[in-house]
Amino acid sequence: MHNKYKNNGFRVVAVNCWNEDAKLLTTFARRSGVSYPILLNGSDVADDWGVKALPTNFLLDANGKVTREFGIIGTLDMPEVQKAIEALLQ
Hints:
Elements: H1 2-5, E1 14-15, H2 22-32, E2 38-39, H3 43-48, E3 57-60, E4 66-70, H4 78-89
Parallel strand pairs: 1-2
Antiparallel strand pairs: 3-4
């Protein structure tokens, strides 16, 4: 979704909730093809947003307000996620 909508103002940011070694995390991200930023040491963000399980995915509007929450997003969920993103970008 990041690559599909990034030219429309859509951004993906990963939030790391564990105190992982930054080098280990960046190596994993590079090998996994992650092309968006990762916030290191983001446990405060996870606490503020009430994350209870990982992964938890949030969709925020242009003002930073959470508009949707998704758990694990699989292939079958993509049409719903895409529809929600497109609605926010209008």
